[in-house]
């Protein structure tokens, strides 16, 4: 290599790296360190609440899987249950109407 030569592509690679770094710096971190306070309370960081689509005062569903706390909105949980149970519902079928008819019959009442 002569004095004016640089390794092939190094300027382009550096420019690509700089552009990629700028884009990555705009993204919120996926993990955040939080402190557990009195009564087991912690604050969900704002960017995570935004990503989850939740606001203060909303009901949440929490459960532990393999030692990991999982949190989702109550409404998202209902949506997921509806999606999972949809394949079992027949077209035109009203599960609520069937349930009410069963209960009325069980209680000996007419519809």
TrEMBL record:
It comes from the Bacteria. Coiled coil: none annotated. One of its GO terms (molecular function) is DNA binding. Keywords: DNA-binding. The keyword Zinc-finger does not apply. Residues 31-76 form the SpoVT-AbrB domain. InterPro entries: SpoVT-AbrB_dom (IPR007159), SpoVT-AbrB_sf (IPR037914). PROSITE patterns: SPOVT_ABRB. The keyword Ligase does not apply. This is AbrB/MazE/SpoVT family DNA-binding domain-containing protein. It comes from Georhizobium profundi.
